[in-house]
Predict the structure.
Amino acid sequence: MPTVKIDGVEVTVPANTNILEAAKRLGIEVPHYCYHPGLSVVGQCRMCQVEVEKMPKLAIACNTPVADGMVVATRSAKVEKARRAVLEFYLLNHPLDCPICDKGGECPLQDYTLKYGPGESRSVEEKVQRVKHKVLGPHIVFDAERCILCTRCVRFCQEIPKTGELGVFSRGDRSEINLFPRKVLDNAYSGNVIDLCPVGALTSQEYRFRSRPWDLVRHTDSVCPLCSNGCNVVLDVRHRQRGEELLRIRPRENAEVNQWWMCDEGRFTFTYLSDPARLRVPAWREGDRPAERGYDDLLLRLARSIRRVLETHGAEAVGCIASSRLTNEELFLIRRFFREILGTPHLDFRVRPVQFQASDASEDGFLRRTDKTANSRGARDLGVLPGPGGLDVAGMLAAASAGRLKALFVFEEDLVQGFPDQPVRESLGRLDLLVASSMFPTETTALAHVVLPALGFAEKEGSFTNFQGRIQRIHRALTPHVASRSLPEVLRDVAVDLGRDVGGIDPEQVWAAIGDAPGPYRGTAWKDVGPEGLLPEQSREPRAESRDA
Amino acid sequence: MAFEKILTRYQDIPNYTGTMDAYIARGGYQALPQALRELQPADLIEVVKRSGLRGRGGAGFPCGVKWGFIPKDSAKAKYLVCNCDESEPGTFKDRMLIEEDPHQLIEGIVISSFAIGCHLAFIYCRGEFVDGARVLERALQEAYGRDFLGKNILGSGFDLDVYVHRGAGAYICGEETGLLESLEGKRGQPRMKPPFPAISGLYRSPTVVNNVETLCNIPHIVRRGAEWYASIGPPKSSGSRLFSVSGHVERPGNYELPMSITLRELIFEHAGGMANGRRLKAVIPGGSSAPVLTEQHLDVAMDFESLAAAGSMGGSGGVIVMDDTVCMVRVGEIVSRFYHHESCGQCTQCREGTAWLHKVLRRIEHGQGRKEDLDLLLDMCDNMKGKTICVLSDAAAMPIESYLKYFREEFELHVRERACPFEGKGAF
C-alpha cells in the first residue's frame, strides 16, 4: 500500500487509489465536478488539478493514482491560480442569478466560487443564450444555460441503468446536453441525475422551486420502504414554521446496498404521507357506519371483545395477518402479543406469492426487487409465521368462512384487494371481530369493526431487514398526527387492559428483547445497527440471493 | 551533396499518374517483398529507429520508438491507423501525397503493419478529401489485385486488410485519440493519456497511429537503409520534410527539403521570395498552432530542435508567410475563430477559453478593445496552456501569445485608435 504525502500529511491507501480519494481520507477537499466515485473517470472539468512533485504540469487528482513517496500540494499558488481560472471560465457563460436558482444554497459551483473563485468577472462579452426548462422526462427538467457540461448525467444513463438517453451535442462552447432523437429520460433511475448535477441544470418536476435548501432543516437518515432492497435514503423535511412537510428523498451512500443510487419510484413516492385522506383517528363500527372514538375507550372495548372470544372459543379462534411493511420492532411485539399473550398459533405475513421464501428476485438486475414490501425478511427472521398447528393467510380466511375463526387482526394489509379471486368479503363478514389498521381507508377497513390509523415509515423509529438479511434503521422525520397512536402503543395498551405486559415498546427496548430471543438476531445489539446497517453473522450465508446472482 | 527528393521524386517524372504501374515503374513495391522476405518485424522496428525518422504529423515523436511500444506478448489484435485527417490550417502535404502517389503510402502501410504485427489497418481520411479518398480506394483495389494486400501477401504468409474511413469534418479528429474515438463511431474527442494508443488504442487494443508522410518514408528507409536516411538533414531531424508554403510568396506549394534548410532559403530560394516584392512581416512555421516568427528568425533552420529553440515549433510543416499588409490582430481573430469553432468542448479551459479569446480579439479588431484586454489575453492564454486533455487548448493559446509578444504595439494601436489601422489597406 503506497504512502503519499498530501499538503504535508502522510496517508497510506490501497494501490490505485486516486489522489482525490486519498485526500478525502485526510479530510482534504479537492474540488471537482465531473468526477464521481460511481461513474467512469473522464477528467474533463479540470477542477481537481493538484501539484505533484516532479511532474511538470498540474495533475488531475481524479485520474492520477497515488504512488509511494508521492508529494502532493492541493493549495499551492499554481493550483489556486488554475482553480480560479477554471471557475472564471465556467462563469463566463453561467448565469449569475444564484438567488433565483433552485440549486442556490447547495451548489458546488456557488460553493467553490466562494472558496476558490475570482471575486469579480473580467468578462464583458455576452453570455451564450440557451434553452430553459426543457422537459426531458416525466420527472426531469433541464436548464441548459446552467449546465457546466460535466457529463455526469450522460455517463450515469450510459453506465448505471444503461439506457443512454442523454448525449452531448455540438462542440466547443456550443456543446449541449440533450436527449438522443426519439428518446425520453424515463428510465427507472432517472432521478439520480439530479443528485449528480453539480449545478441547477437538472431539477425534478416534483421538487423544483418548492423550497429553498436552507428551509429543509431536517435531513433524516432512513430506508426506502417500497421494496425489499432497502435503499438507504435521506429524508429532507421543511421546518415547522413553514409547515412541516417531507419534500424530498435522496439516496444515501451504502456500498453494500444501493451504492449512491435509488429508483424513481422510491424517490418520488412520498406525497401520500401528507394526503388529507389518511386515517387519523381510530373508529369502532356501530351498525353500518364507523363511529370515531377516543383511544382509551376504544381499546378497553377491544380488550373486552378479545377476552370474550378467548373465553367462548379459545385462542384457536383468533388470527393475525401482519404486513411486512411493518418494522422489526412492531412485528416482534405483534408476535409476542398474539403467540405468547393471546396464545394463538395463527400468525402470518405472506399475503403475496413473492413473500414466500426464495420467491423474491431482482426486478431489473439492479436495485429494484419484486417483493414490494420492505421487511419480508425481517418478518420471516422474527417468526411472524404460523406456529404449531397454526394457519397461514389462506387458512385463516378459510377458517373464517367456516366459522372456526372468530376474531382476525389485519395490520396494514388490504385482504379484499390482495385476493381478488376469492370471496374475502364474505369470509371477513362472518367474523365476530375484525380489527384492521391502515394508513388509508380500504375495502378491508370498510368491513372492520375496529379501524386503527397506521403511521408511515417517515413517522416512526425502528428497523427493516432487507432481502440480504441486513438490518437497517429508519428514523422519525415527521411528527405523527396528534390523534394517532403507534401500533406498539396500541398493543401495549390492549395488553394492559387484558392484565398483561408486552414489555418496553421503545425500539431500543424491543431490540434488547429481540437480541435475547432465539433466531438469527440473537446476540445483536441496537447500537451495532449503524448508518450502513448490520448484517448478522447468521444471515451472511448463503449468498444465493445476492443482487448479482 | 545535392539533395535528392524522396517522397516527391515522382514530380520529376513527366506525366506521372500515380497508378500501380506508374508506381512500380518508378521503383515502387520493391521494398515490400524485401521487408517480407529478408527482415523480421523486430529488425524493421530497429531499422526505423536507427533511421531517426520522426513523426510528421506535428509532435515529431520518433517513429521506431512508437512502434517499439506495441506489446509483443499481447493476445489482442494490433492496429495500424494512418492519420490522413490533415486539417492544420496552412498544411496541405498529405493531401498531395495521397492524391498523386497513393501506392507509396500503401506500401508504407503494409511494411509498417508487418513490423508491428497488424492485420487490419485503417486510413482515417479527412472528410473534405473526397477525391483523395477515392484515389486511395482505387489504389487499394489495385494493390489487392496484385497480391500486395489481402491474404498471404506475396506468398509470405502475412495477411493485411486496409480500409479507408472518411471523417465528418472535425479538426479534433486529427488528434490521435480523438481520431480513434471517431473511428470507433463515437463522438470525436480526445482520450486521457495514459494509456497511450500503443497500449490501449483502437477498440482498446495496441494501436500505432502514424501520419501519411511518416508512413510514406518507410519503403524508402527499407530499400536504402537506415544509415542513408539518417545522413539526410540534421542528426536529430533526419530525412526530408514536406513544407507547405502558403501566403504572400511568389510560388506557394509543397517543397520537399532536408530540415537543415533555413526559413530564408525556403521562402526566398524555393518559394520564389515575397509576392509583389513586399516586405516579410511574419511567418508561422508549423501550421496555425505554431507561434509566429519574424524577420529576425529567417536564418533559423527548419528542424524540430532549431524551431523549438526559436520559440516556435516544426508542427505540421505548414509555413504561412505574411507580408507587411497583414494586421496581426486580424490574424489573431481568424486563428482564434478556428480554434473556437474546432474545440471539442470537453475540457473547461478549452471550451470556454477558445471562445473568450476569439470574442476579445474580435472586439479589439473591431475597435472595441480595452487597454486591459491585452494582459487579459495573456493571462487567459496562460490559464489555457498545459491544463487540458489534449493540446488544442495550447494550440489556441500559443499563437496569440506570440502575436502579442512580437506585435504588441499593433494591438495597442487598435485599442488607442478604436479601429483597425489596416482596415481597407491590408490584404487580409
